[in-house]
């Protein structure tokens, strides 16, 4: 089984990713936690964890790791300093550590609008941080998938999506469905070295992601 490090494991999307991976026959999740008290959550789930902080050294977190899902984020509502520290600098630090550790694939949770931050004034700092991290990943030499979902909801996942490199339309998508897309992107041949936007749609996640991989 491949070991998958989930950065942002205690977040709303990260927890869903962990739940999916815990039932997988192919992948074993390893939760990256920042606070000591978070370990109980993952001990109760019988999920391995590693203690690391994006503001400090992270190389040790990559030991024995095959692939990474980066689902950490400030959420766009924090101050500019924290947004840049997590969504840009933290992501870049993790990409560099992953390259050093020779991980096989890096799956990045980004955001729609990250290609054109100046068009979204309220979220410009957040989207620019995402854009810079995405560009660093593309240029890293790592195999990657960058997933840019629309507005995230806590609705139950429908497992129906619309995917494209550029959708040219706004929309919402559940965290459940985003988590499934992130996990499916771990498969080596799927959406390799691609950036895809995602919103709720009519096509099954499986067929949509296979189509987007062509």
Structure in words:
The structure is a single chain. The protein is α/β, with parallel strands linked by helices. Helices cover 33% and strands 24% of the residues. The chain has 6 helices and 11 strands. It has helices at 12-22, 39-44, 80-100, 124-138, 175-184, 205-212, and strands spanning 2-7, 27-33, 48-51, 67-70, 105-109, 144-149, 151-153, 160-164, 172-174, 194-200, 203-204. A 9-stranded mixed β-sheet has the order 3-2-1-4-5-6-10-8-11, sandwiched between helices. The chain has a two-stranded parallel ribbon with strand order 7-9. Helix 1 (12-22) crosses helix 5 (175-184) and helix 3 (80-100) packs parallel to helix 4. The longest helix is centred in the middle third of the chain and has 21 residues, at 80-100. The chain is globular. 45% of the residues are buried. The model has no long low-confidence stretch (mean pLDDT 95).
Q: Please describe the biggest sheet, giving its number of strands, its sense, and whether it closes into a barrel.
A: 9 strands, mixed
Termini separation: 26 Å
- What's the helix count? 6
Helix-and-strand structural type: alpha/beta
Q: Strands of the largest sheet, in order across it?
A: 3-2-1-4-5-6-10-8-11
Order of helices and strands: EHEHEEHEHEEEEHEEH
Radius of gyration: 16 Å
Shape: globular
What is the percent of helical residues? 25-40%
Low-confidence stretches: none
Percentage of β-strand residues: 15-25%
Average pLDDT score: 95
Number of strands: 11
Short description:
The chain is an alpha/beta fold. 33% of the residues lie in helices and 24% in strands. Strand 2 (27-33), helix 2 and strand 3 (48-51) form a beta-alpha-beta unit.
């Amino acid at each position: 089984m491949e070991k998958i490090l989930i950065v942002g494991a205690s977040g709303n999307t990260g927890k869903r990713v962990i739940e999916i991976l815990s039932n997988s026959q192919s992948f074993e999740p390893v939760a990256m936690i920042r606070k000591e008290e978070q370990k109980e959550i993952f001990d109760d789930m019988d999920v391995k964890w590693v203690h690391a902080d994006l503001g400090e050294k992270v190389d040790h977190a990559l030991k024995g790791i095959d692939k990474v899902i980066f689902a950490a984020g400030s959420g766009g509502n924090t101050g500019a300093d924290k947004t840049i520290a997590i969504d840009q600098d933290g992501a870049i630090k993790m990409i560099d550590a992953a390259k050093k550790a020779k991980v096989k694939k890096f799956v990045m949770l980004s955001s729609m609008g990250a290609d054109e931050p100046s068009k979204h004034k309220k979220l410009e700092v957040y989207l620019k941080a995402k854009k810079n991290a995405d560009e660093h990943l593309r240029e890293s030499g790592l195999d990657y998938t960058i997933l840019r979902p629309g507005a995230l909801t806590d609705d139950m996942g429908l497992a129906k999506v619309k995917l494209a490199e550029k959708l040219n339309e706004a929309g919402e998508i559940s965290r459940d469905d985003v988590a499934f897309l992130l996990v499916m992107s771990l498969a080596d041949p799927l959406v390799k070295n691609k950036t895809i936007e995602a919103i709720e749609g009519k096509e099954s996640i499986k067929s949509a992601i296979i189509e987007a991989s062509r």
